[in-house]
Fold:
Amino acid sequence: MRGLLITFEGPEGSGKTTMARWLSEFLQTKGYPVLLTREPGGTPIGEAIRGILHAHEHADMAARAEALLFCAARAQLVEQVIRPFLAKGGIVVSDRYADSTLAYQGYGRGLDLEELRRLNRFATGGLEPDLTFLLDIEVELGLARRRASGEAWTRLDALALSFHQRVREGYRAMAAADPARWVIVDASQPMEAVQAAILAHLTQRLGLLLEGHRH
Ligand code: TMP
Structure:
């Protein structure tokens, strides 16, 4: 039995990390075997690569090097963590996945989308999410939220507003092009409304039983 891969995507400050954590805990209380992970990271090698990617001293990183490092971290995560858990029938919830490379390095940096899709296929062995939530938020609001959260301000957060706007538009274009996989959720709503939208789609799209407890 193959499990389910559920991913959260979106611009900075859209609440992906909070929602991914909440959903994995919620599904666990319902009796599902769940693994929460994040990109870049999720493995010792991936976390080391994350450090390189986020460091302000690497402001001169070439866009292609950046794309390859994100994909290297992803390849390690898929092979070491995601595939084995899916093979056991588990649900993997990931805070970002391959679509982030298309949004940031493709729409944001301007690298060729078709080349990046090939790179993603190489890195993941073709493993695609079953469902992807786009937590959509206005760029200024997201960045302001992120600043207020007190989380580390990374090399990528510091890029121009126009970069982050291209990222957001890229996400919206990808979601519109593949509505069978993507769900757009308005992340400027109160947290309870975002959570309710997520649960409604999990039931509708994946048929997950979320009432009561499974065992
Ligand atoms: P986050 O964990 O705070 O979301 O930080 C990850 C940062 O890396 C964020 O700015 C988005 C960026 N990113 C890419 O540019 N490409 C990718 O493939 C991934 C996974 C993340």
DSSP finds eight helices and five strands in the chain. Residues 4-206 form a domain with the Rossmann fold fold (CATH 3.40.50.300).
